[in-house]
Design brief:
Helices cover 36% and strands 19% of the residues. By secondary structure, it is of the alpha/beta class.
């Protein structure tokens, strides 16, 4: 995905955990962080406390959605996905993408990967890998500041 592109429709989930959301529900009111992770990804698990802290700190200003992207046949086990999500306190909606439909729509190749969309649904920031949570926070804050000025 390129910057300023619109958020893809959130369709094709194998299953939703912790509630289901649509693109229409996310756009308009506040910015959205969509993060891709996988149960076999050590860096994802390592970064999850920071993602959760983010989610809790900005809960009134930011939508946070998780996308589980399998990297192997072992990663499509729903019981294991539910267990790892519970172990890592992933209480935000989780789009389980066992058929890689959303992964393809995002043209995403990485876990962890973070996509920040403004409230109009335009992509404003993308980053991948386990480092750079400070940069992610800076970008999210920039989009949140713009959102507050626009209101």
């Amino acid at each position: 995905m390129k910057l300023r592109e619109q958020m893809p429709e959130l369709t094709g989930a194998t299953e939703w955990l912790n509630g289901q959301v649509t693109k229409e529900e996310l756009i308009g009111e506040k910015p959205t962080l969509i993060h891709f992770w996988s149960i076999s990804c050590y860096l994802c698990k390592e970064a999850m406390p920071q993602v959760n802290e983010f989610r809790d700190q900005y809960k009134d200003k930011l939508n946070v959605i998780a996308v589980h992207m399998p990297r192997s046949e072992d990663d499509v086990n729903m019981d294991e996905i539910k267990k790892v999500a519970a172990d890592h306190d992933i209480i935000q909606p989780i789009f389980v993408d066992n058929e890689l439909k959303l992964t393809d729509a995002f043209e995403n190749q990485y876990v962890p990967a973070y996509y920040v969309f403004d409230k109009t649904g335009a992509l404003r920031h993308f980053q991948a890998g386990g480092s750079g949570m400070k940069m992610l926070e800076k970008r999210v804050n920039r989009v949140l500041d713009e959102n507050e000025k626009a209101e």
